[in-house]
């Protein structure tokens, strides 16, 4: 370098390290520091509080670990590597942190719900039997009416929301000019719509149907409309994001083949974005399938099986879980067991949706190999 | 099967920015025309106005006429989709459809336009197009694999195969070989030679040798400075451009020692 | 070579073929869908305004229905605005806590799945987080009562004991666990999947070119993320966070079940009696018992939540556009022919 | 269907005590849409089951999630055939009902229960509290279980420990009935008006629904709350000292309360049976915190068909048999025969 | 400031697929080495192993050694981040950071290590780097505009500016000029000429003329067929490769009439 010609290097030299291995913490250092902080924190906590709380322990272990590895790496390696290690620690903690509630909810629901969940519970309509001699009413657990109600109400809401949502997203991404006022208004309002409390959506739908069909407006369909108000913005938003991720080059390639815009959108853009769109739709379904307040308001309540979405009350699994929890019979334990049973069934249902969506997404996903 | 193109005093704008100014030229059917010129002078921009592809960029618009066999591409009632079906295009960067197999990529133009094509016809078309793009031997045993798994050069040849599979009347190519190695480039150049008996071909290239080898006529574009519009400086038989250019700027540019 | 399958040259002029009609129809359909959203939203807004107006304009001190609405100060509320104030604060405060706890974790998880987890298990991990999205909100409500409330009690005592000098952690510490902290944690868990799955998709879509550009400059993994992934994903992250925020603001039942509310302005997060009530939960709790005028008041508060959503969105949007010069570029990929 | 084996006809054919009978018509078909008070929920479920055992063709949908207010609102809009409500129609609601029901809406007491004071103090299974102590505890003036006032009520000291009061966070008839009692009997220790929302603020744990209160009292320590007696499950409830006697909740004691303390408070519509409690008439045999809930329906229905269904069902409820079903399955107290007879008379006039 | 590179019997895999097999070569410091060969023969793949950039592709791994001044890049404890700081890279497709201004793009690498670079130093560095990439005149008055707004050729030059701004010891270029017009290409070639007095430069090119103009030594890679690994066929002084190649395949390739 010192022997360089008169052609000075074009830029000033930074003090880049010349070696390739300078300041490396050994590979085992991360697990070691982690274990160390776990032990130290456990000890300190025990001395300070004379008790042991797993949450507090995990939390402070993470903090001590991050500080420790950060400082250690700053000293031995450099600031950049320290940042890198700390961020990795943070990201992994975030993930573990999220696993805890997931496992906890699932375990809770499964443990609590498994007690009542069996084929009978799924395939029978919940009901009562009455013994005229003892005057005793016995409740027979059953969720069939709620399963059917869930499928009908959510199904209709999905059938309405998904096309509207996806078409709107298409309008926003594929058709509207950036400064089109309608586009601006809709992007904005869709965000606002995500903040509508679910109960207000229920009130809106019920008022609307009261205007149309008169006072006895309770029906599965009006509940579906309420759910649409909640679902559409989620579908629009996630679809919009996914459509924007489709590279423009693909659209151009298609246009250049003389493919009309509509076909390009359907067969190239949607196809490329399909997996993300499906994920968004499933998220939206999961979001609405657990709603209770709008269902009460718009579809009222029943224990009976009702297959007609356009008339009379309907029950859903979420409502069943909620009512059994909130308005138990005199046998509180049995009611709560039913509530958890319905909740477990609901989770299973959504997981099934999710699986189907996954399969669809995998089939449609862009492939590189 | 091929058409003449006549451009009259064309200005191209991106919003308010005039990118290309006052281009007039005539392109004969069954000929190869090369566009050369420094980066940013508006070659791609102008090329895209020949099949109205510039319209997909918000705010891009033209003033002036482009006549194909006398029909104004910008006349009232003209459907850009139909224009593009007759004026095919190959881009600078390869852009195969990531969701499709190699075979489906080649057939995309036919299939997306809802043409029903029998399996044997389809196979024939795929083979012919891929052979034309000199890709057949490399991919014949993995036609059902995704097109995105190919190397850059292979992808570009796949895109060329896709464009010629719909048998357009005019073929626009925007630096089609810039990502290709000499062997593929050679194949494409031969292909152009072949195609020109049926198609009108317009090619943008940075490669002077390529321009002189493949084209009948050459157009040299230049730009006075940043923010200034690109202009057609000289348009003539390729031989004349490379040996006896009329304009000093052209001579400066083509006499560079690069290739 | 191609003339075997070559079609005869079609005319350039637009013939009124089916396909072009399809194009128009498709544009019509998507525009109609977009407009239908406006209609729905206008419907909801008009509904809220018509139903809420009587209570918003009423004199609360003298109205027989409104003057009995409970006020911790034991006097009738002077006006709708006095009543809605603490509720607005409660909604914003609980959503803030939820976002504070949830959003960074959600983005962290998304990053973990997209850029840290070994490729082989990343897909499985993504699925695990989607499972979280599969848990319906009613289940989170029940879970919150049963698991989170007792779980947070020791932490609450700990925080109060050592950090009680902070106004947030002031006592008296709850003995039942129905704190805004518990509600916030449950809300945070509820927004996790929605924020995570959208940001994850976007992170995964970062062009490899940009990532390689950073890596080739000698960037560490985090620097690569900071240079290429985060800027690319910024507007998507904001959208995802806004979706989560919308969910947090509008969540009804879980909050109603978990938090022990009061109509007061409070920042305490560890108490039973000093948790600011949220608008959505307040509606759910009081709607059943309310008469028409009281319902009007509740719907009026719903209208205010609507307005808050407006405000938050405007704020977020201006933040994004202020910090991201290129945001419109990505947004304007859509074009017209 | 063999009408002779059904409880309704059993009740009418078997002259036990002076039973109030109803005629259940097994041939009816249709749907009754109703809802409201959640206090009635369990009773309604039992009534529906018992009624359906005789009348197979009638579907009864009682929406307990609406609450009393929701029930009344839906009734007034015409959506419900009858509403269940923990308080009768207010004056303006009665006026409103006139456009729907010709003469107006009728309030018929159909459900009687008591508000139980539930607690969870480790080691304590029996608790006696005077009205004043109850008021002071719930008004946060007594904050420890070892308080002398509590010791005095019980005769022995309870283990010391802070008291956490648990109340309803949602508006409810239970709160209304409880505060009715406190406001009427403890004006000094309970300075608040009766209301359906809990007036005390401060260190109160407010929970959604009777089940929320019950759960929280159960899962906490040193907790005390109030709930509809039929919904308290296995929790202990306090005996309330009235006229020197500690009276635990019992259906008989509540029926007695209704018998001695309920005074008619008609809304002016002919046949209306709204009631009010005069707490000064409480005796040493009465459980002092009663909870009464009504069925509200039109004097004249829009559809005679619907009227027939609804009246038939409500008349079953207002029979001795109906009340026994509720007592047996929902833990409620049977209404006295006198009021049931009035109810049958009113129902007979409904068209 | 520049280093020698020694590659010993290197195999590169994508998962189980052997993409490049048994490459051994020595690259002298302060020299320009060109890699040529048909598309898909593994030039890019091999080039990326020289700064461990292949590792960002899941499943990609190597067997064998790459020594830089005797230090094994794949030795235990070697940090790929440090490797890449010293071995810069310019890609086939321009990839400026789309959210950054032109100036920030140039400074991106420098800011990683040295956050607190003074404004005047930064301005100097930006100017020098952009001048080096022959882009200064075109962008001097819009340094604060986004880099993605430039034309393809301009973007590529911006990427070169960004790479040389961190003053690496070795500079790898994967077809850096394939998107550039002759004027820019010429500038880059001059730049390479200049830089080689300080840096070790490795360049992949499809342009035979370019290879012969700029490089001291040339490596010819070839591939026997699809699915077969790419191999180093011949590695010699550029002059020898283009005039007296030892291997028939090399001769066939370089004697093509293209360039
Ligand atoms: N989408 C666009 N919006 C605005 N301006 C653009 C757009 N695309 C190109 N330009 C500008 O138009 C001018 C011509 O660009 P064009 O891409 O046509 O040049 P070119 O000759 O093809 O260059 P190259 O050889 O680098 O491909 C340039 O100044 C460029 O900055
Ligand atoms: N990410 C990848 N995964 C699997 N295989 C790959 C990947 N990238 C390249 N390959 C394969 O490795 C081989 C070498 O590809 P490479 O891109 O290195 O060729 P190249 O010589 O640079 O070609 P070109 O001149 O077209 O750039 C090809 O067969 C290609 O299909
Ligand atoms: Mg161009
Ligand atoms: Mg390559």
UniProtKB/TrEMBL annotation, chain A:
SUPFAM superfamilies: MetI-like (SSF161098). One of its GO terms (molecular function) is phosphate transmembrane transporter activity. The chain crosses the membrane at residues 28-48, 54-77, 89-122, 142-173, 185-212, 218-236, 268-289, 339-365. One of its GO terms (biological process) is phosphate ion transmembrane transport. Its main location: membrane. It is found in: Cell membrane. It holds the Pfam family BPD_transp_1. InterPro entries: MetI-like, MetI-like_sf, Phosphate_PstA, Phosphate_transprt_permease. Keywords: Cell membrane, Membrane, Phosphate transport, Transmembrane, Transmembrane helix, Transport. Signal peptide: none annotated. GO terms for cellular component: plasma membrane. It is a multi-pass membrane protein. Residues 147-357 form the ABC transmembrane type-1 domain. Belongs to the binding-protein-dependent transport system permease family. CysTW subfamily. Part of the binding-protein-dependent transport system for phosphate; probably responsible for the translocation of the substrate across the membrane. PANTHER family: PHOSPHATE TRANSPORT SYSTEM PERMEASE PROTEIN PSTA. This is Phosphate transport system permease protein PstA.
TrEMBL record, chains B, E:
GO terms for biological process: phosphate ion transmembrane transport. Keywords: ATP-binding, Nucleotide-binding, Translocase, Transport. InterPro entries: AAA+_ATPase, ABC_transporter-like_ATP-bd, ABC_transporter-like_CS, P-loop_NTPase, PstB-like. SMART domains: AAA. Residues 5-248 form the ABC transporter domain. GO terms for molecular function: ATP binding; ATP hydrolysis activity; phosphate transmembrane transporter activity. Signal peptide: none annotated. GO terms for cellular component: membrane. Pfam families: ABC_tran. This is Phosphate ABC transporter ATP-binding protein.
TrEMBL record, chain C:
The keyword Cytoplasm does not apply. It is a multi-pass membrane protein. One of its GO terms (molecular function) is phosphate transmembrane transporter activity. It comes from the Bacteria. It holds the Pfam family BPD_transp_1. Keywords: Cell membrane, Membrane, Phosphate transport, Transmembrane, Transmembrane helix, Transport. PROSITE patterns: ABC_TM1 (PS50928). The keyword Acetylation does not apply. GO terms for cellular component: plasma membrane. It is found in: Cell membrane. GO terms for biological process: phosphate ion transport. CDD domains: TM_PBP2. The chain crosses the membrane at residues 24-50, 87-113, 125-152, 172-195, 244-265, 297-320. Belongs to the binding-protein-dependent transport system permease family. CysTW subfamily. Part of the binding-protein-dependent transport system for phosphate; probably responsible for the translocation of the substrate across the membrane. This is Phosphate transport system permease protein. The gene is pstC.
